[in-house]
Design a protein that fits this description.
Methylamine Dehydrogenase, Chain H; mainly beta; four-stranded antiparallel beta sheet
Length: 264
């Protein structure tokens, strides 16, 4: 991946709909949250066409894909909202209450992993029951300040970005700390995605760059930096089938698209 070549493609314009998170839902579909309008929208990744939109009960914050037909988004009122995605239609499904203010969310081994405040990370069942938990008290030291985005890899690892500590924490299936990554490249880490068990992409907001992280060697490489439009990147997705990288800057109403070649 560090030798990949990137060719910028036409951006996806969202007509002043400012997004706050996004997830690749299908090969040609992106699911976006638009907090100011209290909705999620399903967008065709190639054309930018809005396929469906759904107004919710509160402002959605973070979003993840659960399975082929279900997504989940978090609200700051301790609620997780499940959403059905079927044939380009969005429909409200069940809701789950959690006993903390949830932020980031990811699907993990038939359960969910969430970041929350007061700062910590939980693995919970889909009905909100806590399975494992880690916070600064249980860890015995300050691990988290502002944990947000979460990525899970095929080897069972969980990665959490924290813009308060400028770190990425790697956890196992019981939320035991395995590794911590930091450095000048990770100032203001935001969105993170897993390409495979040893390649992750991280948005470094303050550096206006996208960084490739290899946990096996703790190495970091800048993949995108000082490109047109690369200013304060916050959200990121990657489609392996199309070999396309989607990146959205902070407070943006557009998504930047890059075609990758020499991918390995």
């Amino acid at each position: 991946m560090s030798t990949a070549k990137l060719e910028q493609q036409p951006s996806i314009h969202l007509n002043k709909q400012v997004i706050d998170d996004m997830v690749l839902f299908d090969t040609n579909q992106l699911l976006l949250v638009v907090p100011e309008q209290r909705k999620v929208i399903l967008v065709q990744s190639g054309s930018g066409k809005v396929l469906a939109e759904l107004v919710l009960q509160a402002n959605p914050e973070f979003i993840c894909k659960i399975d082929a037909n279900v997504a989940a988004t978090t609200f700051l009122n301790n609620t997780i909202q499940f959403i059905q995605v079927n044939q380009n239609k969005l429909k409200v499904d069940s809701t789950t209450k959690v006993n903390v203010n949830v932020y980031g969310i990811a699907s993990y081994n038939k359960n969910l992993v969430v970041s929350y405040y007061p700062p910590g990370v939980k693995i919970i069942s889909k009905d909100g029951r806590t399975i494992h938990n880690i916070d600064n008290t249980t860890a015995g030291r300050e691990v988290f300040k502002n944990p947000r985005w979460i990525a899970a890899t095929s080897d069972g690892s969980i990665y959490v970005t924290d813009w308060g500590t400028y770190t990425i924490t790697r956890l196992d299936s019981r939320l035991t700390i395995i590794q911590t990554f930091s450095g000048s490249m990770l100032t203001g880490p935001r969105g993170i995605i897993s390409l495979n068990k040893d390649q992750l992409l991280v948005c470094s907001l303050d550096k206006s760059s996208v960084v490739l992280l290899r946990p096996s060697t703790s190495s970091m490489t800048v993949l995108l930096d000082k490109q047109p439009g690369i200013k304060h990147p916050r959200y990121i997705c990657f489609c392996k089938e199309q070999k396309e990288l989607y990146m959205a800057p902070q407070q943006a109403d557009k998504i930047l698209v890059y075609k990758l070649s020499n991918l390995n």
